[in-house]
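Ticket #4471: structure output looks truncated?

Reporter: J.K.
Steps to reproduce: submitted the chain below (191 residues) through the standard prediction queue, then opened the result file.
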Amino acid sequence: MGIHLWGFPPRLMAPIVVQLGPVRALAWVVWNMPRYQRTLKRFGPVRTHLICTAVSLVNGCPYCGSGHGYAFELAYLHEYGWLFPLGRYDMIMLCGRPPGLIRHRMVAATQAAGLHPEVRWLERAIELTVAEDGRPTDVDDVRISHLVRMFGVLNSVGIADGTEPDQAHSPLNKDRVLKLRYAGLRAVVGI
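Returned output as attached by the reporter:
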């Protein structure tokens, strides 16, 4: 599935099967991936990967934080034509830090990037991640709440396994020209 969607086999798949068991892992994927794909279609890749990155950073998962941070950066570059102010390595340095610090740095970068409408989505995702009761309270929360629950599982598996980051968790990972452009721009700014 990962090869088809993103062009590589994600390192987290085997640990999911080991930790959840084959039947439960399959049921989890069958339940969560279609919902994730619908959210991706509805929210678009910039918003979806921004939320997934923030949730993963708050939960302290370098694997998902890196994969979705890179996916977010590629989506942002693809859509807007320039780099997001924080590179994925800067984002990973926030991994597991206090949620207030993560919120502050991510919101500041999101605003600096001109993504002002995305700030409310980002803040709500962080709020639901740290809340004792992360159930949705309005229609907009339903998709965010699902991502928070879904990434709660992915993040806990990635952390427990110590899964090393891999590539961008996005179909844009297969866009070699975009990835070369991204690498070139990051090399110029030194990040």
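Triage note (M.O.): checked the attachment and the full token line is present. The chain is about 70% helix and 0% strand.
Status: closed, working as intended.
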